[in-house]
Amino acid sequence: MRRSRPCTSASACCVVGEPVELRTGRLRLSAPVEADVDAIHRICQDELIQRYTTVPSPYRREDAESFVRLVAEWWDAGSECVWALRDAEGLVGMVGLHRIKDGAAELGYWLAPEARGRGYMAEATRAVVDFAFGPMRLERLEWHAVVGNTGSARVAQSLGFQLEGVRRSGLAGHGARMDGWIAGLLATDPRIPQAWSV
Hints:
The chain is globular and about 40 Å long. Strand 2 (20-23) and strand 3 form a beta hairpin. The termini are far apart. 27% of the residues lie in helices and 32% in strands. The longest helix has 17 residues, at 61-77. By secondary structure, it is α+β, with helices and mostly antiparallel strands. It has a 9-stranded mixed β-sheet with strand order 1-2-3-4-5-6-7-9-8, with helices on both faces. The protein has one domain (20-186): Gcn5-related N-acetyltransferase (GNAT) (Aminopeptidase).
């Protein structure tokens, strides 16, 4: 079984192909593994996750199995970094840096319904942003969300993302294209909460 390495220094965190473990005050972030498949499958039955993210709908157990395999391949290739969020009870969500290329990546995340309202996602994404702009030396992060996904927007605002506009029919949904918000955060931006008029 593959194990994540704790991130203890900048040089240790830059090895392509080895999942890196991050920790916050309440959470451990590590690559999802086969033992997480049932939890991922259960959580991804949530109607909001299916409406606002790119997970398949309906979401089958086979989709969770495929996802875990893909994450391992992404880490190996250095193309995407995806972490499972774990609290004292177990897996509660997922956060990732997607489409890593030319000094930029897209930040994406979802959280189990029972874990919402505790500040978990803000805590986890802060650690991932620190990793992206620190050891990974990325220059820009983007955030995309379906217009109306205010929960995701609140997290991005708390991290300092600046709203850059609405992409009309910019996001592919389950059978239809949807308008999407886009926001950006540069490594040189102050990491202070933003207020958007959305």
